[in-house]
Amino acid sequence: MKLDVLPTRTGGAAENMAADFMLLQRYPREGPARYRHYEWRSPAFTFGYSQKISFVRSQLPPGEAFDLCRRPTGGGIVDHRDDWTYCLVIPRGHPFEEARATQSYRAIHEALAGALGGVGVPAALKPVAGSAAAGEPGGPAGVCFERAEIYDVIHAQSGAKIAGGAQKRNKRGLLFQGSVWKPAAGGGSAAWEKFGEDFVLRLGAALGAQPAETPWPDFSEEEMEGLVEQYSSPDWMEFR
């Protein structure tokens, strides 16, 4: 099995969400898993598919300009202003795709925590579900990086949440959208390029796949524009 490693791209919130969904729905090659790390054109927040827009707005910083988009995956509100963002798509029929959500979540985050450890960040997986233990940072449910849940990546010393993710499964496979909060991992002191390279290798090993740099797929421009328009629309943003 191959793991297609796609070029890094920079986009707005709706563009990035549309691109991730297209990697799940319209990828021209059915066999390989596909992975991308991407960046943000401007300050941005995304939020989970099932979250209520009234709650989301109550948690956003007042008086600041930023891009906002509902994700196709679940999970909570994610602040992308200082994060390291990635997407992984696992095709239908792969053992990861068929596993329970907690199992795939754990395996991906084990690879991520190992790559963080390789650049000197003491990372571990949160071992139990429930509210934050005594001494651990905690915050409102539904807001990422303020509260760690089971198998999120945390700082082994401070307990601060470093990384989380959200999933979507359909007949095409599994879409995993993940985010690493740089300040909790040491910010600019971490070697992010080295981390990214090691993370890809560890993901490949976990999937039993050979990573290979791959050109960006030739998606239908009309379909992509339509999906960006959908993700930018009030109907999508405010349907809950």
Supply the key terms.
240 residues, alpha/beta, 7 helices, 12 strands
Produce the secondary structure layout.
Blueprint (H helix, E strand, L loop, with lengths): L1 E4 L3 E3 L1 H13 L7 E8 L3 E4 L5 H7 L7 E4 L7 E2 L3 E9 L3 H4 L2 H18 L4 E3 L27 E3 L5 E10 L2 E9 L10 H16 L2 E4 L7 H12 L1 H4 L3
Helix pairs in contact: 1-6, 4-5
Provide a brief overview of the structure.
The chain has helices spanning 13-25, 53-59, 95-98, 101-118, 192-207, 221-232, 234-237; strands spanning 2-5, 9-11, 33-40, 44-47, 67-70, 78-79, 83-91, 123-125, 153-155, 161-170, 173-181, 210-213. It has 240 residues and is of the alpha/beta class. Helix 1 (13-25) links the parallel strand 2 (9-11) and strand 3 (33-40).
Estimated share of beta-strand residues: 25-35%
**Largest beta-sheet details:** 9 strands, mixed
- Which regions have little confidence, pLDDT < 50, spanning 5+ residues? 131-135
Number of helices: 7
In total, the number of domains comes to 1
Overall 3D form = globular
Radius of gyration: 17 Å
The span between the termini is 39 Å
Provide mean pLDDT, rounded: 91
CATH fold annotation: BirA Bifunctional Protein, domain 2
According to DSSP, the number of beta strands is 12
Structural description of this entry:
With 240 residues, this protein is of the alpha/beta class. The chain has a single domain, classed as Bira Bifunctional Protein, Domain 2 (BirA Bifunctional Protein, domain 2, 2-Layer Sandwich), CATH 3.30.930. Helix content is 31%, strand content 26%. The chain has 7 helices and 12 strands. Strands 1, 2, 3, 7, 8, 9, 10, 11 and 12 form a 9-stranded mixed β-sheet that branches. Strand 4, helix 2 (53-59) and strand 5 form a beta-alpha-beta unit. Helix 1 (13-25) crosses helix 6 and helix 4 (101-118) crosses helix 5. It is globular and about 40 Å long. The protein starts with a strand and ends with a helix.
